[in-house]
Amino acid sequence: MNMPPSPSGAEHIDGSSVRLGALVPLTRPGWVEAGRHLLAGLELAVREVNDAGGIDGRPLELVVRDTAADPERAAAAVDELAGLGVAAVVGEYHSVVARGAAARADALGVPFLCSSAVLDALTEEPTEWVARLAPAQSHGWRIYADFLLGAGRRRIAVATQASAYWASGTRVLRDRLAPRGGTVVELDTNALTPEALCDALVDHGAMALLLLVGHPEPAVPIVRAVRGDRRLAEILIGAPAGQPEFAEWAALLGEDGSGIPFLRYLPERVGPLGERVGRELRERLGEAPSFVAFEGWDTVTVFAEVLRSHGTDRAVIAESWPRVAVEGTRGPIRFSRTAGISVWQWAWTPVQVVDRDPAEPDRFRILHVG
């Protein structure tokens, strides 16, 4: 599902290019659809930067590497990109993969602006080299927990797999729900078939099942099993990680995939810039752009401003994070030090809980705003 090459606008600019490395999941087991949207945003912004004259007359060149959801592959790509002389590295969707890339970027002294990964502990120790646009998991998932409480869902089951990301999400939910009378029980999808998981939900009297698992496997078979079990007609299925955002979800599940709330990092209404970029992204993708596509566009736009203002020296770029002030598609972007977060953080992008409308599955309903 690699996107076809597109004109960058670089033919209008003289001089050697400024290279920007990009990490994107473009093949399985990576979330390919998310990678395609992320790359669309990155490429569109590069095109616009170059159409506007590039970086002081030099074209901006995106050097893309497929991570395939593999942290070691991502770390190796950072090594390669550093050797190619990139000014910085951007991108990545998967949290565990972004953590591997961030650690390598920190070690090598290469600036890394993470577009989409949310794991709080993106690096083990505080670093000057890494910044992030996406909200930290603890921020977004607390908002999701508040949505569950507001909906009267206090007995929560999580269908989970072994992963630092899923384990972190479970902790956030439990810490937010427990003081308010909520409970969280973990159901290991490696040990339970979808049918056995349905039995466990009945036994626990669960009021909501959250899918903390990969997509499409095992998320899709679990949804089908729960939707087909009359005992679970009243249970809420949720997917805080955002699986229902993408068209593939609706294509695989049809009506069964609607009414499943997830986190989306968009404002209730985008401004004129967001509307314009959204139209361009829709044309590029052939479908409605996800928030991940907007994250890609914002990422390159931030870096273009940094490069124009501070040049291409890596150390100077890393020192510039606290001075960033850029209008993004989802609001003004600034980076700061945030308690418990080891990287420079935009605090915060808008956060919504939305679902696909059962009456019109291509339409999203905003259920809660954080």
Concise structural overview:
The protein has 370 residues and is of the alpha/beta class.
Question: How does this structure look, described?
Answer:
This protein has helices at residues 32-51, 71-83, 95-108, 137-150, 164-177, 194-204, 219-227, 247-253, 272-285, 291-310, 314-319, and strands at 18-24, 60-66, 88-91, 112-114, 130-132, 155-160, 183-188, 208-212, 236-238, 262-264, 326-328, 331-333, 344-345, 352-357, 360-369. It is of the alpha/beta class. Strands 2-1-3-4-5-13 form a six-stranded parallel beta sheet, with helices on both faces. It has a four-stranded parallel beta sheet with strand order 7-6-8-9, with helices on both faces. Helix 1 (32-51) packs across helix 9 and helix 1 (32-51) packs parallel to helix 10. It starts with 17 loop residues before the first strand and ends with a strand.
> What is the overall pLDDT average?
95
Strand content: 15-25%
Assembly form of the protein: single chain
Gyration radius, rounded: 20 Å
Defining key terms:
single chain; 370 residues; alpha/beta; six-stranded parallel sheet; four-stranded parallel sheet; 11 helices; 15 strands; globular; disordered N terminus
